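Render this sequence as a predicted structure.
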Amino acid sequence: MREARPNHTGHAGEHGLTLVELIVTIVILSILASAAVPMARFQAKRLNERILRYDLWTMRDAIDHYKDAADKNAFPIKLDSQGYPPDLETLVNGVEVQTKKVKFLRHIPVDPMTGKAEWGLRSMQDDPTSDSFGGQSVFDVYSKSMGTALDGTKYSDW
């Protein structure tokens, strides 16, 4: 009886990838990678937009708390300020209320769209769509970024 032996004489038993298989694999990986890059950019932009919304909300909330305290005569204010802070630094540095210093904001956040801690400011006397600050008091803040959000609105309009 003859014993069955493996075929060692030809190329039919060799294992490995051919050049065509390697090229096809590289093409498939390239297509998948090219689809992943825009998704990563989209996610990063969405995260920055979420941070921007939170930072704007935090600063506006601090302005409102300052205004509420000023309306309750907790500290002296300038007559033309209508109870709003003169600048964002005042919210960070705080004001004297009786014997305590009350701070309304821990720090001025960095605008995630511009990478700077610079914000557009509006006072009560400014036009609601104005991009120039009258300097009387801070009624509102907005991003100085000229970019457009994923929903099609401008960051400066938020």
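Summary. The first strand starts at residue 95 and ends at 97. The two ends are 88 Å apart (CA to CA).
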